[in-house]
């Protein structure tokens, strides 16, 4: 029987202390309950609260560079013992989903290998501090594994131009701002670079244990992450999101896709609805598009159909949801001693 997919994130140990406040105080500033696991939007709010407490713009770069040495993240530690960079990225992508709804996507094309982090349930932009930490952690993994032989050929960031010189100094490569995605790009040939930290015996032993966890149904299913990304791309291109269309994107037959979805105890319609819901909230929260435009972007031919299903999802209309979300973002942070239930 399949185990529930992890739909929550935990906050890296030690970061709250580095900010100079307790995790309880950070949660209070973020307006989220004190816990050891948060849904994506709550997790982002904690990082935004941490960002607001730190004046040092390089803090995220330090957090990421130090995290590997402190043993944060099972997937990254396993990747460090892989035979080469290519297999390290495969391990990072495959085992990251055991702990949270985040997809590490490695796309090889035109002589380049792009490593992209997709937050599968995010309705808003990824906090700057979190992006810096994530990318610095990846940079440190590659630096340590290859003994400094490999560096990225560029770093692409979705944010507007800011901190360009600082980022260039840290990552040692050109920085591209206002990109479509946050991603680190390497030369494709770099994937074959051996890791000096490789430990074949330990790597094989740990992989056996992690594979058994995946085989038992633990973790966020890779197929579901790939399907959601494919649906999102299909919607962004204005193309119909049908079973046949998504199956073609994934190189599968419609029948095979349907069977694998049944094996994962879900359906294509459930995955389509999930992507539409997340995308609708993201568009309403972060763009000026009116609800009719959002409906069309999500593939609804009738705006009333979108309004009806949105009310089912969020128990309010798209316009009221937008107004409520805007009011929450403009609200001042709660006093650090106040806890939110």
From TrEMBL:
Coiled coil: none annotated. Keywords: DNA-binding, Transcription, Transcription regulation. SUPFAM superfamilies: Homeodomain-like. Transmembrane segments: none annotated. InterPro entries: AraC-type_N, Homeodomain-like_sf, HTH_AraC. One of its GO terms (cellular component) is cytosol. PROSITE patterns: HTH_ARAC_FAMILY_2 (PS01124). SMART domains: HTH_ARAC (SM00342). It holds the Pfam family Arabinose_bd. Residues 225-324 form the HTH araC/xylS-type domain. It comes from the Bacteria. One of its GO terms (molecular function) is DNA-binding transcription factor activity. Gene3D superfamilies: Homeodomain-like. This is HTH-type transcriptional regulator VirS. It comes from Amantichitinum ursilacus. The gene is virS_1.
């Amino acid at each position: 029987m399949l185990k529930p997919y992890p739909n929550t994130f935990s906050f890296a140990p030690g970061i709250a202390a580095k900010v100079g406040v307790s995790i309880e105080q950070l949660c209070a500033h973020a307006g989220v309950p004190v816990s050891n696991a948060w849904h994506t939007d709550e997790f982002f709010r904690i990082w935004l609260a941490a960002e607001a407490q730190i004046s040092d713009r390089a803090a995220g770069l330090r957090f990421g560079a130090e995290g590997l040495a402190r043993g944060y993240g099972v997937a990254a530690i396993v990747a460090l013992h892989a035979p080469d960079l290519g297999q390290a990225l495969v391990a990072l992508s495959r085992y990251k989903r055991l702990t949270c709804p985040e997809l590490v996507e490695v796309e090889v094309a035109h002589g380049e290998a792009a490593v992209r982090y997709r937050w599968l349930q995010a309705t808003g932009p990824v906090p700057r501090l979190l992006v810096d930490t994530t990318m610095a952690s990846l940079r440190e993994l590659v630096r340590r594994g290859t003994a400094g032989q490999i560096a990225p050929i560029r770093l692409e960031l979705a944010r507007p131009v800011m901190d360009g010189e600082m980022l260039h100094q840290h990552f040692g490569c050109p920085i591209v701002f206002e990109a479509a995605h946050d991603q680190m790009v390497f030369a494709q040939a770099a994937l074959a670079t051996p890791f000096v930290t490789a430990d074949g015996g330990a790597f094989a032993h740990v992989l056996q244990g992690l594979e058994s966890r995946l085989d038992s149904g633990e973790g966020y299913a890779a197929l579901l992450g790939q399907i959601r990304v494919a649906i999102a791309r299909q919607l962004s291109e204005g193309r119909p999101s049908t079973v046949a269309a998504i199956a073609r994107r994934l190189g599968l037959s419609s029948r095979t896709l349907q069977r694998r979805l049944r094996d994962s105890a879900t359906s294509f319609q459930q995955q389509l609805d999930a992507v539409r819901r997340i995308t609708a909230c993201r568009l309403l929260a972060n763009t000026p598009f009116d609800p009719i435009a959002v409906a069309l972007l999500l593939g609804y031919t009738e705006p009333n159909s979108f309004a009806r299903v949105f009310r089912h999802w969020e128990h309010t209309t798209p316009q009221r949801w937008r107004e409520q979300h805007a009011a929450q973002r403009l609200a001042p942070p709660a006093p650090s001693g106040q806890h939110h239930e």
